[in-house]
Design goal:
This protein is an alpha/beta fold. It has 2 domains: 97 residues, UDP N-Acetylglucosamine Acyltransferase, domain 1, CATH 2.160.10; 32 residues, no CATH class. The chain is 30% helix and 17% strand.
């Protein structure tokens, strides 16, 4: 795989700074507080990228120059952000599109079953106990 000069530079920055956020900041990207970035922000013009506070950027996401990601946003893994994303938005895809709001995503995450809701000795039994109660209580799961 041939790597571009920007990608090699980004890798060196991550190795030196120990975090992708710090590497992106040192390259010139404007990043707010409380961000979690799982992707290299490798672009030829990093000073044109702006990321707000409390933002999550998934692995392998590509952020194009001139894009602003608002506060409290989620960018899905592998997404290509070609346009600015407004505050409180969940965006995924190529090109990245808004699919939900940050507040609705948090509400759904709070409703997810916890480990204490799982019943059974094996991993399969625990997964089935949640699937039977939460997702489709009327549906019988196939047995092996």
């Amino acid at each position: 795989m041939v790597k571009t000069r920007a990608q090699r530079f980004a890798r060196r920055l991550v190795a030196k700074t120990r975090s992708r956020e710090a590497a992106a900041r040192s390259a010139g990207v404007t990043i707010g507080s409380g961000c979690r970035i799982l992707s290299d922000v490798a672009t030829t013009e990093p000073w044109l990228v702006s990321i707000g506070s409390d933002v999550f950027v998934g692995a392998g996401a590509i952020i194009m120059p001139g894009v602003r990601i608002g506060d409290r946003c989620v960018v899905g893994a592998g997404s290509v952000v070609t346009r600015s994303i407004p505050d409180g938005t969940v965006a995924v895809g190529n090109p990245a599109r808004a699919i939900d709001t940050y507040d609705r995503l948090l509400a759904r995450m709070k409703a997810w079953p916890a480990a204490s809701d799982m019943v059974g000795n094996t991993r399969r039994q625990r997964a089935e106990s949640i699937a039977e109660r939460v997702h489709r209580p009327d549906m019988e799961l196939p047995r092996r």
